UniProtKB/TrEMBL annotation:
One of its GO terms (molecular function) is DNA binding. InterPro entries: CodY, GAF-like_dom_sf, Transc_reg_CodY_N. This is GTP-sensing transcriptional pleiotropic regulator CodY. Keywords: DNA-binding, Transcription, Transcription regulation. Residues 3-92 form the Global transcriptional regulator CodY N-terminal domain. The keyword Cell membrane does not apply. It comes from the Bacteria. One of its GO terms (biological process) is negative regulation of DNA-templated transcription.
Length: 93
């Protein structure tokens, strides 16, 4: 429980700083990735990647290239994401 409280406090601290400074999307993504043990992508409406964090054991070179090098999701992939209306775990391609 203290770990969750500590992580919640870290997120709160980041969000409070965003009122006076530029939003640290990378910090937010890193914290959410740590808390949920998953990859996190913060993506703009047009597919531009504003921030990201990979989980420790992530090994997809294609995604790493798109995220790290291109800093943008492909248009068709982004359109699929935009059209998702409900939260569902492990959506099939």
């Amino acid at each position: 429980m203290s770990t969750l409280l500590s992580k919640t406090r870290r997120l709160n601290k980041i969000l409070q700083k965003s009122g006076t400074e530029a939003i640290a999307f990378g910090d937010i993504c890193q914290l959410l990735s740590d808390v949920m043990s998953c990859n996190v992508y913060l993506v703009g409406r047009k597919g531009r990647i504003l921030g990201y964090s990979f989980s420790e054991k992530f090994e997809c070179d294609i995604m790493k290239e798109k995220v790290v090098v291109d800093r943008k999701f492909p248009e068709d992939y982004n359109n699929k994401l935009i059209n998702i209306q409900d939260t569902i775990a492990n959506i099939p391609n």
